[in-house]
Amino acid sequence: MKKKTGIKTLMVSAACAMLLLSNNSADACTALQLTAGDGGVVVGRTMEFGFDVASDAVVVPAGSKMTSSLPDKAQGIHYTTKYGIVGSNFMNKHMVVDGMNEKGLYIGALYLPGYASYQKGIPENAAKSMAPEDYVAWLLGNFATVAEVKANYDKVVLVENPQKEIGGQSFPGHFLITDSSGASIVIEPTDKTLKLFENPLGILTNSPTFDWHMINLSNYSNLSATNVAPLDLSGKTIRGFGQGTGLLGLPGDYTPPSRFIRAVAFSQSAPQLATAGETVLQMFHIMNAFDIPYGAVQDKTDSGTHIDYTVWTSVADLKNLRYAFKTYKDQSIRTIDVRKALAGAGNEIKVIEMDSKQPVEDVSTKFK
Question: Is 0.85 topped by the overall pTM?
Fold first, then answer.
């Protein structure tokens, strides 16, 4: 565990900021959920970007004093966390982009470019203003269930907070919120207000807005994990080629609409396993289907070729309170026991390094 402590350790370094000045996007994140036979809810998500976002796992104990990311600190909400948080940050910035709290509430922030919009910070709303990048930590630090979030989500005002690291725009995100009961919602900052949607499938990708994705499901109502039966055409039996005929037509590209459809197909067809612990490994396998290899998604610009890829994948076990992850550089699954991490952190915010090198074991003489 790194011995970085305090809110200041979550701020981006000047060197990292210079790296981010280029026009990079994160339009390919995918999140979905499964429920195990023991009732345990497991949520998985990928983080895509055009470079290594240098995320670390951050441990925020209950009772931590959180400050605003707005330039004028007096214009934003300051609060003390009621619940401890374990999650991932972004370039060591003062934000949590993905994580869970000690009560089993999970929140993931995913990009919503072209649709997310915020009010301007003005004196009239200063008392309840919040930068978009502070929203996940505020929700996790103060609420235990989706029901509590629904009762309080709009008691703050998300205001513009331009970030030079992402081209001078405010963080264009929307938020997947799921609790240990399996209840799930999506909150989207569109038309300069916060809109809440029930999310019965527990799925989220990127643009367009969530309600559009739910309508688009109707275009794929014919898909099934069950193979198509042979067809009789005037006495001629027509059989499909091999396995997977029921999902023929499943979109395989990396656009948000296609990934949303795949996430629904894979999560709905996944056999229910007995325990949440088993389901964590099942979830990592499913999330592999959304892993973007380096070079598969490219954007040509005047400044060169921009390549998005999967930087890391996280899986949150909301029953056993464990937060697991793997990274582009190390596909080994590492896990954080939320209770142990919070107890070990004491009264200070601490960081656990996510960056590591993939171990490769030589088994040449390990004969059975």
Answer: yes
